[in-house]
Structure prediction request, 616 residues.
Amino acid sequence: MKANEEVYQLSSLDGLKRAIAQQYTVYEVTEDSSETLHWSDDGDGQSFREQTKLPLTSPKAWLFAEKELLYIFDGQRFVETLPEASPQAFWGVRACDLAAIAYTDQFFADDPYYKQRREKTFLVGVDCIIPCKNGFCSLTQSGPFVDGYCDLVIHPVENGNKPWLLRAVTEKGQEILNSLGLDKVPSGWQDNYLQAKEKATQAMLIEDNVRAGVELIVHDSVSDQTWEKIAVQCTACTGCTSVCPTCSCYVTESQPASEENASATHVRYWDSCLLEGFQKEASGHNPTAEAGQRVKRFWRHKFGERYKSEMGRWGCVGCGRCDDVCVGVIGARSLFKRVSDS
Amino acid sequence: MTISLTPLPYVIEDQYDDGLNTCHYTFAPIETNSVINTVIPGQFFMLTIPGEGEMAITFSSLPDVNGFFSAIVRSTGRVTRSLFALSKGAVVGIRGPLGKGWPLKYLANKNICLIAGGCGLATLSPLMDSLIQQGNSPVLVYGAKDKRSLVLNVEWARWQQSSVLVQVLMDGQYASEGESKSCLEGNPVEHIDRIVAEQKRVPDVVLTCGPEIMMAAVAEKMVSIGLSPNNIYLSLERRMHCGVGTCGHCYFGDRYVCTDGPTFSWSEFTALVN
Prediction:
């Protein structure tokens, strides 16, 4: 939040959520019986209570669908099948996931299917005043506070009877706020806000070898032998690429017309660059047959200077989800340490 | 600008065998207002076999005024086999042109040598036509496994009228009886010294397409005889699912072959490999 912005204060978020729900299906983070957090459209609006845990996934699948029908063939013509996206709002998106959406918005800027879903999407960001367990977003300049890539930003205040500060980033966001008749926050809020930001950033544990590992990858200073050693632990389960909020590789597949489908179809699915056959050609030639090449590619795609100069940010937003899911213990933090110690 | 991933409908206008397991296709647009044009030699298109899949194929001739163009396809995998099962008149999908073509602006009035291996001749074919049309007489060296593997036989006969063509066959079986001088044994790289000596000068620009190992050997040889790495160009093949830089499959270093290539200079190539 910046000094010259209109900032409002709220004692409860219920009215805001109701106002958004009038226009959008609202997805928020809910906990299942195994204490895993998911995006769901049947939340109770209280998802901010658990500040220290991230949902298992970002909202990626609602923008870049896991399976998307691209076109059908009716026997004579190919017909584009853009998704019938309905208005959707994401309530309480963390700074890391917003940075990821900023990244994929650029990457899929010309993709009609992504755009169709994205244009119908309303994003409510929330500042993380307490860092999550595996996150290192301050290192990737993508958190812990929201940098504005959303429609509204909610800032939790640690003390006080009006524990929420609120600001609009877009016109869509301002329209929602205007409908609520909110109180502006009294002057002097900035000091507390900046203190909270500093406190959250400092509380994020980023060891020296994590920083050093990132630097080595950025400068492509990790030997092929080290990548091969690390890749021994990659089971190609694709967990990391599935939960990574910026991973966006896909494969396409056609199906002929059948009794169930009158037309032949062409769809795309999420794919993973860590799979052995990802680059394998029909001839059998495979430019990245070695697991080390593929693991290197994954991380150089996240921390390659060319991508950063093109996209304006790293491809890794520091959410740490890959550490949560990696069965081989080579998620981000673990990998940075291994690379640094090699 | 939004990119469409949906192909335009074309029909197989003509097809004939053109080398071992290879078929020469002419594609024609179904709708006159949905035609691919403005193609640069070296660019490619995605060919859709409805219900079967898509594949990246290079233009072996550019679209004519009616939008007809040709391509050769070697039967290699499931989708190419499904194409081979189609007959004249079958509807296919075409999406393109895609990628970066050969660097035409650097080729005007230059002494040019093209070196092809196998089906790699296809992407050099429209360049050959274009250079000849401009009055250039490039030297074309074409390596193949054996006589029956030779592709683009009709085009080859046409080019013979105006250019120096050299065939190099792995088994040394002469492709054209009685023309032993232009039919050599081995692979193209082995004969570069001899070809350059016969031309009495090192080419200004070399463009090559074929197996990656062959292109690398060609480039290294050309550098060793004095060519700048910036004047050697190659065309890469990679698995592709989109052709527009989003599916991720064709990455090469920190580039995508579909949008940053498929043509690269040797200096770009070596920087990306290392």
